[in-house]
Amino acid sequence: MFDCGEGVQRQMLLARESLNRKMKIFVTHMHGDHVLGLPGLLQTMTLLNREKKLDVFGPPRINDFLQAIKETVPFALTFPVEIHEIEKPGVVCDEKEYCVETIQSKHLTTSFAYAYVEKPRPGKFHPKKAEALGIPEGPLWGKLQRGQSVKLSNGRVMKPEDVMDPPRHGRKIVYTGDTRPFKLLEKFAFGADLLIHDSTLGEELAERAKEYGHSTPNQAARTAKRAKVKKLILTHISQRYEDTSVWLKEARKIFKNTAVAEDFMKLDVPLLEK
Ligand SMILES: [Zn+2]
Ligand SMILES: [Zn+2]
């Protein structure tokens, strides 16, 4: 989960998302609309008897914030919470199938943008090819699928590429949090399958957006274009805007594959052969 604004637990329940699921939370910065959902979420998880550990990543002081809640709002957690304060940008979380990287963004307070980057996946395995090459079904197939070469009983060596397609790139999803546009973001988001970008104020308030560390839809679209991402989602839109259709039209002139985020929006991010 990237950011945890007020009402997250309610939205998750409405969306029928399990609060017992395996989960890590990445907070961009300590403004209320990004972090105030944490206490409620932790409490609701406790009411539901969550047992799985929850990792929370975030800027300095997120630990103080959660400790203050713990000391003043008495409830005993039913699960461990591990807090990771980010000291410097880079890879902050490295798992078997993915990693999460961060860079500092340009906002009014210490703030991070995050990239969820899947590790390459093995290519498709072709059992027919393996049979045709005389590789017996069993442990040898498993070894090949894990990327190891195997030796057959006749002494011949078989390599994974003999029976498998080339590895497939994982997906990359970048979430900016609140930020002005900045050059390094284009590099950070380069080639992403999905860029979820701050788009707080319209073009008419570009000066104010800059002053408050936010972006406009066209700025987000320009970053998406330069970063050659596949899809752009505009988010964090000020409540003053009821109708964003004009925005979308303008932004799409710069970057075609743009959409505006909505509550409960679901997006399919397909694995592409690249
Ligand atoms: Zn903010
Ligand atoms: Zn915000």
* Number of DSSP strand runs: 12
Basic shape: globular
The ligands found in this model are: zinc ion
Low-confidence stretches: none
What does this 3D model show about the protein?
The chain is of the alpha/beta class and 274 residues long. It is 30% helix and 19% strand. The chain has eleven helices and twelve strands. It has helices at 8-14, 32-35, 37-47, 62-72, 127-132, 139-145, 160-163, 183-188, 206-211, 217-226, 245-254, and strands at 24-26, 54-58, 81-85, 90-94, 98-104, 112-118, 150-151, 157-158, 172-175, 194-198, 232-235, 258-260. The protein has a seven-stranded mixed β-sheet with strand order 4-5-6-9-10-11-12. A three-stranded parallel β-sheet has the order 1-2-3, with no helix packed on it. Strands 7-8 form a two-stranded antiparallel ribbon. Helix 4 (62-72) links the parallel strand 2 (54-58) and strand 3 (81-85). Helix 10 (217-226) packs parallel to helix 11. The structure holds zinc ion (ZN) (2 copies). One zinc ion is lined by residues 31, 33-34, 178, 236.
